[in-house]
Amino acid sequence: MTENFQFTLSATDGMARRGQIDTPRGEIRTPAFMPVGTAGTVKAMYPEQVRETGADIVLGNTYHLMLRPGAERVARLGGLHEFMDWQRPILTDSGGFQVMSLAKLRKLDENGVTFKSHIDGSSHSLTPERSIEIQKLLDSDIIMQLDECVSLPAEHNELERAMELSIRWAERSKKAFDNAKGRALFGIVQGGDNAVLRARSASGLTDIGFDGYAVGGLAVGEPQEVMFRVLDETTPQLPSDKPRYLMGVGKPDDLLGAVGRGIDMFDCVHPTRAGRHGHAYTRFGVVNLKNARHKDDHRPLDEASPNPTARRFSRAYLHHLVRCEEMLGAMILSQINLSYYQELMAGMRNAIENATFVQYCAAVREGWTKGDLPALD
Amino acid sequence: MTENFQFTLSATDGMARRGQIDTPRGEIRTPAFMPVGTAGTVKAMYPEQVRETGADIVLGNTYHLMLRPGAERVARLGGLHEFMDWQRPILTDSGGFQVMSLAKLRKLDENGVTFKSHIDGSSHSLTPERSIEIQKLLDSDIIMQLDECVSLPAEHNELERAMELSIRWAERSKKAFDNAKGRALFGIVQGGDNAVLRARSASGLTDIGFDGYAVGGLAVGEPQEVMFRVLDETTPQLPSDKPRYLMGVGKPDDLLGAVGRGIDMFDCVHPTRAGRHGHAYTRFGVVNLKNARHKDDHRPLDEASPNPTARRFSRAYLHHLVRCEEMLGAMILSQINLSYYQELMAGMRNAIENATFVQYCAAVREGWTKGDLPALD
Description:
Chains A, B: This is Queuine tRNA-ribosyltransferase. The structure is a homodimer. By secondary structure, chain A is of the alpha/beta class.
């Protein structure tokens, strides 16, 4: 533990990096996957179950928490860690992304964004300063600047305008953050799929100076190859002594590709959402437990999994729970998916240390390509 | 453990009885509350969490399981214990009650009942023999006879007809059960709110001879005082050396009153269903966590609860989870309610041993009457 935020790189393998972020609330082994606890809970899981999957840090959504239960209320209740009983690090986003994707009647100008809540239609505003204030009220360990994220494909002018605005908001965020002790502030690189804009964004943010750099504006509609190309062009522009965070990504194959391109941190609702929809991530790839082929299958999802829950119940039982829409199905599959994601992160960390990252990824992808066990006769 | 089913009474206090049922899958301390695992899962809980609340046995619903995943399928998969990974005793009902309350286009005659599934409209039939067969396929430890349960209020003729039919079905059930080794068969007393019919039912069943006797046809619309009067009239008619099971009951106050009238076993969906609807059972009575009075309340539900989960999270957090319809809210409140029910059963068992049952019930009721903590200013 440290009183302040610190990033240490311990190994590299190609562009892939193995490191550790030390925070006053504990260390974050990188590359790291952060489960998403949107409304103060990683859906369908107790906090200790999230920890047991191997997560060092979870993400909280500023947009959801500012609306319910409200940032000032969370602060009065002792902060988000106390509120949800997760005592390890928490990263909060700025709220900007969900304002754009969820809120109604948005209006954005130089100062910030005003919007109506998707829950009750109440009016709210978010500025770079207010976003930082909310994240401090939540007692976040890693705070994100407010930015403007543009969906792809987009016009060059639009990408440029949003990227420049995001840099001005980054400056205001840095000022509002005011070197808060024990917390970190990350800037967010924008610029869409344009290498020149991305480079200008990275340069502008680096000049301001942040504790970490996120790549935003990806996983917003573009093909994976575009995302990977943008990472190839962008991560070399970022300081090597700070963590790099690819926001809102992704599926397992995205994680392999992005770590191989120098990314250290990820968050995504996908593993828990997929679990609630009956999809299990395994070394065989995705297994759709709604499929009737499982209804008489006495075999566990993966008898060789290091996760006891993936070895415990039969596929037939999981199929039954999913078909009956039983909560236990969502609980088990959320656990299985987050465990698999963490297994993948641990595997990549280990491979980077052993300089076998390329081989590790090839072996994992080969398993996915082979696909699921043959159906029973 | 025993190879066979055995009931031992160790203490009585007034009509209240303290005992133990030994089964090949473990002992059941009585008075016992059985959480309901309708479709092969106690909703929103892992099996070990159910056990940790203090449950010795769970109930499975034959109606639900025969429709999904199907009794023959459960048997092929190793039985219900294996299917849901609950290795302790399971009691299954006969399916009759849910046929009457859930299924469509029911048709009942001397032979049994035919109906259409509420899930997909498929046709099924249930006879006393088929019900026993299904329960054996599920590998149930305690099997219930098929009976006909009539809602109250009802005409005398209707109650009498259903009661007499239930005795004939009891005979057929006994024959079909065929003294299955390591399993128990319970008969079900019917007769509505009529003491003469109840006595005739008890006598008829006792003549056939069962391992236990259930009181059915209560908690079907009548006031609590009618239920208690029927118990006063019925339990003395039942053999004292066999367990007595009050089906589908109830709320905490029903449990106190029924144990005081000689009942040994209960099942009810109420604690888990109430939990999914934001209601918590505590020594203060029922706490409605949807209520806005909790939104800023940093206090746990009950700081003196023996259940760590009831001491762990603030009322404000539980309120938040319930308002956001987060699964974790249902998970926590199901756990808290089942724990409170088991705490009550343990308290009654202890009080009967110490011949302080009346005082125990009075103290518990006094706590409920005082009600919840005063709201914070």
